[in-house]
Each structure stands twice: as C-alpha cells, then as structure tokens.
Amino acid sequence: MISTWVWSRLPGNAWIKTALVVVALLALTMLLFEVVFPWVSPLLPFQEQTVEG
Amino acid sequence: MRDSPPRRHGFSPLAIAGEILIAAGVLLLLYVGWQLFYTDLQAGREQTALLEGLSWTAPDVVGSATDDSGDNAFAVIPDELKEREAAPPGMEEPDYASTFGAMHVPRWGADYTSPISQGVTRRDVLDKLGIGHYPGTAMPGDTGNFAIAGHRTSYGKPFTDVDTLQVDDALIVQTEDHWYVYTVTDWEIVRPTDVDVIAPVPPGASENGRYITLTTCHPRYSAAQRWIVHGELDYWAPTGHGYPSEMVEAIT
Fold first, then answer.
1. CB neighbourhood size of B217 (10 A)
2. How do residues B83-120 score in pLDDT, each as one tens digit?
3. Which of B2-11, B84-93, B128-137 has the highest mean pLDDT?
4. Whose C-alpha in A53, B1, B159, B225 is 20 to 30 A from the C-alpha of B19?
5. DSSP label at residue B205
6. Beta strands at B144-149 and B210-218: parallel, antiparallel or unpaired
7. How would you class B232 by CB atoms within 10 Å of its CB: exposed for 0-12, middle for 13-18, buried for 19 or more?
8. Does residue B62 register a pLDDT over 80?
C-alpha cells in the first residue's frame, strides 16, 4: 500500500506525521488550484463563451 | 520497530490500483470544486479590485451626492448632452488585455458593474479580467458591432443573468470619456461556430447601425451552444455630467 509505505517513511511520532501529511496535502492543493487547474481548464471543452469559425 | 507495521507482506497490486483510483476521484472532485466555486471567488475579487483601480469609474459610478433633504441624489445626464444623431468621437482599440470600459446593466442590479478588457482569450482575459472585447470588432459607439464575451458560470460570471434580459433593457458601457447607452433588441441561441452574430451587421439587422453583441455559453455549465444578445445604440454622452437616467432609475 502506498499510503502505509509513505506513513512508515515519515519521521517522528503520529502527531508529527499527521502534521506533515496535512501540510503536504495543503501545498499540493494550492499547487493544483493556482497552477495546474488554471492551465488545464482552457484545454477542456466545458467553459467556452466565444463564437469562433 | 516502526509504529505501524504493514499488515500484509509486500505490495498488493490490487490495493495500489485502489489507492490510485481513490486519489483520482479526489482529484476530480477537487477540480469541480475549484472550477465552480474557487474561480468565482478569486476572479470576482480580482475584477472588483480592477474596477476600483480605474480612477475614471469612481466619480460617476461609485460616488453619490447628497441633496438638501439628506436623501441620496444622483445627478442625471441632462437631455441636451444625450447625442443620438452625431457620431461619437470613437476610440482606438486598446492593447491586448488592457481594461478600457465598464459595463452596467440595470436589469442585473443597480450595483452591477463589470470591467471590459481587450481580447477574448480565456487565460489572459475572460478567466481573470471579466468581460472581453472581440479584437477587430467595433469599439463602443462605433458603426458596426461592439462584440463582447463573458463567462456565464464561475470566474466572476459577468453574464450569469443573461437570460433575464428583456427587449429595451439598457446595456450601458462607460469609458473614460463617454457613456454609451444601448438597448436590447433581441437574443438568440446559436452554434459555437456561428460567427455571423458578431459581424458588423448581425443577421437581420440593417446596414450602418451601431450595435452591441454579448456572447456567453449556453446551457449553463455547458459549451454546446452560445447565448447571444443583440442591442442597438440609443445615445451617447460625455462622462462627468452624471449617470444615464436608466441607471438612476435602477438605483432609486
């Protein structure tokens, strides 16, 4: 299991591990929200407002 | 000893596939939440800040005078300044992604104001700055078709209430020097490839008119079709002499 493997690799006790996981997930979410998703969205055919020939 | 020893020996391919699928599901949910809510909050804030940064929107739009009785009074453009015959001075097309106008639509609320910027690309204009002007189409007040596009859902959704517009509703474009008051003439739902709607003379319209055309997606949350609203210039007037009466009626 990937999650158990990651968990066992994290340093510290359970509290420190939890904090690390939360920080990592928040950082990943911000990366997705600010960089990845804004880049992907115009490539997907769900949001178009203009008429084009 | 680790404090959470693996319960099974080695890696189970099925369990890893399951974890990847769960992660993919969470990713998709995040994307939907981002698209529907986060972009709206973020772009809405950006567009409000953009408007506040335009010094020329302040005196006529945000400010309000108080008359002797203490009630809010709004100066109205006097009739002699409303120009229906002469051509407006016109303006050059601005640089790409620069904001040159503000749109007011009384039908969408007295406080509805949205910036208008040059260009209709998603990344630089529509997803950030709000309403975009199709390059090469007329500028406000010009003979031809002042064509603009905007989001109907998310990203500040400037055209979210496009389906509530009625014939003769005012579509007011404010630039640094002029007000341009258009009125809605008709609307239609077209295919995304029907570029005729932003032609200088839209289908069914007469030659040499001064038109405005709004394009946005239809149905909501879909890109299958486009909702198109056409309007024609009623009058233009210089700024600095009050609001168009159409706006004041919506406020009071």
1. 25
2. 888 888 888 999 999 999 999 999 998 888 899 999 99
3. B128-137
4. B1
5. P
6. parallel
7. middle
8. no
Cis peptide bond upstream of B238, omega within 30: no
Chain A CB within 8 Å of residue B26 CB = no
> Nearest-5° angle of CA A38, CA A41, CA A44?
165
Residue numbers of B between 111 and 140 with CB closer than 8 Å to A: 120, 122-123, 126-127, 132, 134
On chain A, the residues whose CB falls within 8 A of the CB of B222 are: 46
Q: Which residues of chain A have pLDDT under 50?
A: none
* Residues of chain A numbered 26-45 and touching chain B (CB < 8 Å): 29, 32-33, 37-38, 40-42, 45
- State the smallest CA–CA distance between residue A32 and chain B in angstroms: 8
ipTM: 0.88
- Is residue B60 a contact partner of residue B77, using CB atoms and an 8 Å limit? no
CA distance B113 to B225: 26
**Sequence-ordered strand ranges (E) for chain B:** 65-66, 72-73, 99-104, 113-118, 131-133, 144-149, 170-174, 178-190, 210-218, 225-238
| CA dihedral of B7, B10, B13, B16, whole degrees rounded to 10 | 60
- Of the candidates B202, B208, B200, the one whose C-alpha atom is nearest the C-alpha of residue B190 is B202
